[in-house]
Amino acid sequence: MGRVIGKPTPLIDAVQKVTGKAMYTDDFKFPNMVYVGLHRSPHAHAKIMSIDTSVAAAHPGIKAVITGKDIPIAFGVLPISPDETAMAVDKVRYVGEIVAAVAGETPEAARAGADLIRVSYKPIKNFITPDESLVECSEDEKIHQHTKNSKNIHKIADLSFNDPKDGIASSSFTRSVDFKFAGVTHAFTEPHSTIAVWNGDESLLVITATQVPHYLHRTLSKVLDIPLHKIQVKKPALGGGFGGKSDPFPHEMIASKLAILTNRPVKCTLTREEVFLTNHGRHPTEMTMSVGCDVAGKITALDTDIVIDGGAYGSFGVVTSYYNGVLLQGPYKIDRFGFITRRVYTNKPQSGAMRGHGAVNPRYAVEVVLDMLAHDVGMDPCDFRQQNFLSENTKTVGELRITSNGIRECLETVRRKSGWDDRYGKLPNGHGLGVACGFFISGSALPIIWNRYPQTVVHAKLDFDGRIVMFSGASDIGQGSDTMLVQIAAEELGISMSRVQVEVADTKLTPVDLGSYSSRVTFMVGNAAKQAVDKIRHQIAASVGNEKSVPREAIQFADERVFTDDGKLNLTWDEAVDIAMAGRGAFVESGFYISPKLGGKFKGSGAGLSPAYSFGAFIAEVKVDPMTGQVSVIKVWSAHDCGKALNPLSVEGQIEGSIHMGLGQVVSEDMRYHNGRLLNANFWDYRIPMTLDTPEMDVTIIESNDGEGPYGAKEAGEGPIHPVLPAIGNAIYDAVGIRMTELPITPDKVLTELRKGGQQ
Amino acid sequence: MQKVKLHINGFTRTLLVNAHETLLDTLRERLNLTGTKRGCDQGSCGSCTVLLDGTPVLSCITPTIRCDGRKILTIEGIGVNGHLHPVQERLASDGGLQCGFCTPGVVMTAVPFLQENPDATDDDIKEALSGNLCRCTGYKKIIEAVRHAAEDLRHG
Ligand code: FES
Ligand code: FES
Question: In terms of residue numbers, what domain contains A480?
């Protein structure tokens, strides 16, 4: 082992991408293609009284017009909350919701046609803030009819172990702090895009920018009433997802419907403004975080009360509600633990899953509160954390099974590298250091669509040409999962990566995979891929062993040769393949992954279960200008335990990308609304960090070698975002003595706090 | 409609264009040069960067009629005889891309920049690439790749 695995490996499609040859959805064209124009609601909450499509339909170049009634079947990425339709039926629930759509000969005709649709509305009371949604209203004002008690509460998730409130009340030190987080969005660079083709045999091909072809496949079948076996969803090159391309989307259903109606290929690419309106980003959040500890700084109890703003629809919100709470059970041992999360519907674009799903905001809150407690007790914040960590091979109070755990090494590493012991609390005024930790799931142990299938299946094919083709439904969204498949095959078979190719993310060709979200791909698909190619190796060894009369266990695979150590057997890869082909030709082997049965027996015990957890500790250094309130992040030291880095280049890239995204949320990103209208639906006003904002980054990969991960690997795509934000928040305290409890930390908020003269 | 002559990647095309047609539309929709990306269509992300007479411009806010008689270089025209330009080489080998959607714009900004600033420091590189948004990489490996490409060019 170790010829390919563990080596920094450029992405297999890197050359395609640097030359502009990689094909993203919008780069495809089909003969006779038509384009979609979308008509969107100007109201946050209104009844649709009538829709007049006649003028639009008569406009030159318009081939079809559809409205909500044409695709009325409700969907939702979680089968438990199907509360959305492809276009609004009867009422609209946010500014920007799609009400009608046209297919036009050109993009211009489509836009003009969409503008000619006339809708008359009767406004209903708006619910813009969570506070408005938490109070009673009349039944016919409610955003969704299914919510209970005349309120707009979508979901209440709560768990409690060992009376945490009492635990906090009886602690020597306690802190209870209110936090507020603005909504942020993925801001991937490639806008959503879909092409739908209706074939002569009444099968539907959908090429689309999705992280989860499988969910879209199922949803299209449901809402369009087409049999599953007549649908093919394909993901070409994809320009970033971060959770924002995980749901099945209205525009994908609309393009498909229009392809059927016009019998022509249909393209729908959203504008940047539409991408912002589609959102599904991190929930705006308000919470009270209460933690207690004893005089020695041992955490005694944690209790938190959280309200998350779901926007108009459900998306992954039920999962988000649980993740906000359950993912506070680590990386510290906390025996008295509780949370309640209320997810409310509001009349805004919906929130959903975004990198670090559900756990990023509560992580900020808890790490800031722990920092306060460390100061209360009079302990160094690193020492305080060190003594509270969960061990390896243990269980949390809510029965999350912890296996490998490199958190101690992570913290020791960043502490040493940053010079923490010599510098913390001693930097000149305006300069500060802050520390924070985190942990995250390597895939959810429970699938969101319950069935007895594995969570992934990978096929590996060997043919006469000596090429291995890996078939996987996993979506490479830039994180490098295609490269991982190739690395694993090359590693196991002792061949060069150039002999291995992939067929991926195509629901007709590739076995089902549950998609690229919840940091599941390396762990689950990696295990399945390894199993599939191991079977190929055994097959070759069996054939060669038979024919050459050598014991198959003695046969080795390396350097494109198949050989025994004693030199009796020494074949080239092609010779071995030739022998393996005899009498049967090409063959395919299959590998799969099913998570072991995990978790407790109580209601809500399934949330947060994962076969393995990643861990991390970060330290940030900031400079705060007391005159302007500007926070500059100078350097971030990060150590992340991903079990084993199959491709260190990609793992570093995930950590660096997480620092970028965390930095954006903590200092500038903010979805701003006025009466439900998104004010900053563009990159000018929604500021993501650019090169000049980029801090120095020191990245260390910690390898705890997980017993169940492929080669020991765990996740690296989401865990690293969690510590970034609170490390910066805590560094601001070290710099100027203020506790920032509202994100983003913009200069005006810093100045306000500075004027108050700092707290605590 | 107006007739324009565009010298694109060493080949001359004559087209009739509307006043409102952008160079990005012309390249992607009419000439099938889809390597140039449309990230925002608002001049805010840099993914549509091409060279107009050797200078990087945002093609999404450049009217095609203003390009009459001028030289345009797109990502498809970078690198010679099947060889990658060192900037491309390094972005690919050093992890300077993930999803790759911002990459053509980064290449089209960095290539002329290094030509004029062969000894660029990291701060210069950051400044030069400040208009190219990347959501995946955190920029670190992009900046390093461009610095390495500069070294390759100097020693090349
Ligand atoms: S597409 Fe031109 S700057 Fe974004
Ligand atoms: S690599 Fe994805 S946006 Fe830059």
Answer: 447-593
Structure tokens that stand for B145 in this block: 């790749």
Cα A577–Cα A528–Cα A555 angle in degrees, nearest 5 = 35
Selected residue of B21, B98, B106, B137 to mutate for chain A interface (largest A Cβ count, 10 A)? B98
Compute the distance between CA of residue B111 and CA of residue B114 in angstroms, rounded to an integer: 5
pLDDT band for B152, please (50, 70, 90 cuts). very high
Residue A709: inside a domain: yes
Could you give the CA distance from residue A111 to residue A37 in angstroms, rounded to a whole number? Answer: 5
The percent of residues above 70 in pLDDT, for chain B, comes to 100
- The CATH number of whichever domain residue A583 belongs to comes to 3.30.365.10
The CA B36 to ligand 1 mean position distance, Å, reads 10
Where are the strands (E) in A631-671, listed by range? Answer: 631-641
Crossing angle of helices B140-155 and B103-116, rounded to 10°: 40
Instruction: Name the β-bridge partners of A678.
Output: A673
pLDDT, one tens digit per residue, over A707-736 is 999 999 999 999 999 999 999 999 999 999
Going by pLDDT thresholds of 50, 70 and 90, the confidence category of residue A448 is confident
CA distance B146 to chain A (A): 13
Beta-sheet strands, E only, within A85-192: 91-92, 98-104, 118-123, 153-161, 173-181
Q: Quick one: A662 and A729 in the same domain?
A: yes
Q: In this predicted model, what pLDDT tens digit does every residue of A28-86 receive, in sequence order?
A: 999 999 999 999 999 999 999 999 999 999 999 999 999 999 999 999 999 888 999 99
Domain boundary (A593, A608, A636) is at A593
ipTM, two decimals, is 0.98
Is A652 near chain B, with CB under 8 Å? yes
Question: In whole angstroms, what is the distance from residue A354 CA to residue A245 CA?
Answer: 10
B125 lines ligand 1 (CB under 6 A): no
Q: Are A256 and A220 in contact (CB under 8 A)?
A: yes
Residue A1 has pLDDT above 50, yes or no: no
Which residues fall within 8 angstroms of residue A281, CB to CB, at 6 or more apart?
A183, A184, A185, A186, A244, A351, A352, A354, A671
Could you tell me if residue A72 is inside a domain? yes
Whole-angstrom distance, CA of residue A390 vs CA of residue A330: 7
Domains of chain B: 2-77 (3.10.20.30), 86-154 (1.10.150.120)
Q: Do A17 and B97 touch (CB under 8 A)?
A: yes
d(CA A437, CA A450) in angstroms, rounded, equals: 33
pLDDT digits (tens, 9 = 90+) for A605-654: 999 999 999 999 999 999 999 999 999 999 999 999 999 999 999 999 99
Query: Does the C-beta of B99 come closer than 6 Å to ligand 2?
Result: yes
Residue A552 C-beta-side C-alpha neighbours within 13 Å? 13
The ligand 2 atom nearest the CA atom of B106:
4
